[in-house]
Write a structure and sequence with these properties.
6-stranded mixed beta sheet
Length: 297
């Protein structure tokens, strides 16, 4: 018996039906589940992937625990609707060492959430306190800095180049890191901060013929895409920063073991690593009178 068969058995259990009924009831507040040990949690919630179209945010107690749950969900689901939202820092935020790989994962999650229209499957996001303590750009700000492209879309390749330059992308002969793009005839390569791999967009006139991801090392294609989100670097954006929880849709389900513990850890991390940074961001560009009011508050 493989994991998919176990998932199907769980999905037919009466307890799953009862839980799904509660999740659909808008009058229900907190739901407490007992008896979920080992990998039972990802198996149970994976049963909702085709039955609900909500976003589920799993908040684990630390990065290691979050990594285990994410791995289990990926093994069970094998879906691009399972995402990991890490901290943007290599160590504690107060040390200020940014992690570019994690920044790509964070931006991928933001782009995925912002582009979910008429979704027919659940979106699972796995995170932990260190990641949630860090503010993100608002959805409005992201929409202003997001280029959505899809197969069959009509757009002049020159217009796409202009937009990428406005977003801060650098033109190179060959892309090898996020924030770069290259044009060769009717082919546009762009390395977005929203994907682990760069995109290769093939135009036929003004129409997008194909979209693929490819590997930097050998330039070989990986997989085809019907649509993509091209997003520039967001970590240096200081305007309109909000909590990730406010970025999520209103009907998002939060899944956690201990709310009080998670709340206290996020508050402590924010005070240690981000409170002074947030104050600096708010003071930037304000008048002298406004700065005094901000400091007093």
């Amino acid at each position: 018996m493989d994991i998919k068969e176990i998932r199907n058995i769980y999905g037919k259990a009466p307890q799953i039906g009862a839980l799904m009924k509660l999740l659909k009831d808008n009058t229900v507040g907190n739901i407490f589940l007992k008896g979920l040990s080992c990998s039972a949690t990802p198996v149970v919630f994976s049963a909702f992937s085709d039955k609900l179209d909500n976003t589920f945010l799993f908040i684990l107690q630390d990065a290691d625990e979050a990594g285990y749950l994410y791995h289990d969900l990926m093994q069970i689901m094998e879906s691009d609707n399972v995402l990991f939202f890490p901290s943007g820092y290599k160590r504690a935020a107060k040390h200020g060492q940014r992690d570019s790989a994690n920044e790509i994962l964070r931006t991928e999650v933001l782009a995925k959430v912002a582009s979910r229209n008429n979704a027919n499957k659940a979106l699972f996001i796995v995170s932990y306190p260190d990641a949630l303590a860090e503010l993100v750009v608002s959805k409005k700000r992201l929409d202003e800095r997001r280029l959505s492209l899809k197969k069959g879309q009509n757009i002049d390749i020159t217009d796409a180049e202009h937009i990428l330059r406005e977003y801060g992308f650098t033109e190179t002969d060959y892309v090898y890191e996020p924030g770069q793009f290259a044009v060769r005839g009717s082919i546009l390569d762009v390395y977005s901060f929203s994907c682990e791999y760069p995109f290769r967009i093939d135009f036929f006139g003004d129409e997008i013929d194909t979209i693929r991801t490819f590997q930097v090392q050998d330039q070989l294609s990986k997989d085809k895409r019907d649509s993509i989100e091209v997003v520039p670097q967001l970590m240096n954006t200081t305007s309109e920063k909000i909590s990730f929880l406010k970025f999520l849709p209103d009907d998002t389900f939060l899944v956690m073991k201990d709310f009080t513990y998670i709340h206290d850890v996020i508050e402590r991390i924010y005070k240690d690593g981000f409170s002074s940074q947030a104050l600096t961001d708010r003071l930037e560009g304000a008048t002298e009178v406004e700065q005094k009011q901000i400091v007093m508050n």
